[in-house]
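User: We ran a pulldown and think these components assemble together. Before we commit to crystallization trials, I'd like a predicted model of the whole complex to look at. Sequences follow.
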Amino acid sequence: MRDLYGYLDADVASGLSAQGLHYASGGKDLIKDLSLVLPDSGVHCLMGPNGAGKSLTLRLLHGLLTGQTGTLTWRGTVVSAKEQAAQAMVFQKPVLLRRSVAANVDFVLKSRRAADPIFRDALLKRVGLEGRNGQPARLLSGGEQQRLALARALAIKPRVLFLDEPTASLDPASARVIEDILIEERENGTLVVLVTHDIGQAQRLSDSVAFVADGRVVEHRTTDAFFHTPTSQEARAYLSNFMIL
Amino acid sequence: MRKLCKIACFMQSISEALSLAVALVLRADPDLYEIVGLSLYVSITATVLACAFGLPLGALLATVRFPGRGAALVLVNALMGLPPVVVGLFVYLYLSRSGPLGFLGLLYTPTAMIIAQTLLITPIVAALSRQVLEDLDSEYAEQFRSFAISGWQRIQALVWDGRYALLTVALAGFGRAVAEVGAVIIVGGNIDHLTRVMTTAIALETSKGELALALALGIVLMTLALIVNAMVYSVRATATRAAYA
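Assistant: Here's a predicted model for the assembly, 490 residues in total across the polymer chains.
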């Protein structure tokens, strides 16, 4: 698989690769011939203006949406249902079950026939929700709900973790907890694909930034290179709003 | 003057009915308890059966896309407004001696009344539960796909998370059943000590001019309706407090 944007300059046999993805809905082309190659670990950001197609791209990469054309491969082979089941996604607005905190994590573990109260409690502790097992999940604060959604995603020990602006409306402390976990996941060898508008967060966390504009990846480079010398006109225009350049 | 007299007579009837209702209840009138008991037996059994058929049907319509689903939805919604006398007539034709199920000898028995009420409220349970489960499914759909949760696991989760709303649906079905008169009077025949329920007894006593007894039974029926509504309210309030609604 060839990375068209120069982030990975060698053929990549391992990692997530999208080639020529096209997605249209309501008679509109929303994702147009999108190609992106990611390694099999690390934190990689999708950035771009509102409406550029970042969230759609994330859903296409995860398989929640199926493009009209294009291929999606993992380590060189077409992504199978089994491979998709080893991926998890955290949405911008957490979707929690109408159950307790513990039951939300248990539900995912039981769906994989891997119910394990000790592992569940360890996960809840990891996201700072220890001792909250019996509390109704939907009565948690926004930050706590997002951390629970992350714990639930981590319950399946994902090979690929997709996150759609997970800290968009969180206070700095909650955002920090999530960022710390993403760093740990990178060290564990998980591929983390993160949509964010937060430039500071992208600089702190990510190994590379893919810039999405008008339904295409127009640039994909290492984080330092992207922020210091963006090559695409769209990225330069976007970053100039933040006075980075 | 005449108008005032009419009002006074009406108030006296109400007052007499109330006194009679209280007296009947307090002295544990065996006839009253028999009628109330049979009403509850028939309507509760019909509600349980309607839930046994209606909930799976509602779940199927909510979660499975199949050719003709739109027509099935229209049909189930239309059946919610089934006229009870038509259901009664339909069951009567089947159970009468010359009907296809006449050999069972069920006509003018509580079983026939249960069948009629079950047919009457099953579409209500199916249509309302379909709405509850479909709303929940649209909320959970992406998260479930992300976790590769489908089929039976998905339906189980939807039914469990929608349990409070589904209980409200069941209580609504019971309310409709216990207040129904047209179907049960046709297939039950309003036979004393055998198929006489509150609604048919009210109709009979009214036709005999025994307004006080009819009103007394009406008050008992209204009290039952109030209890059912209070239960619905209580269930919803409990669920809302725990953010489980």
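Chain A touches chain B through 23 residues (CB under 8 Å). That may be worth checking against your pulldown data before setting up trials.

User: Thanks, that helps.
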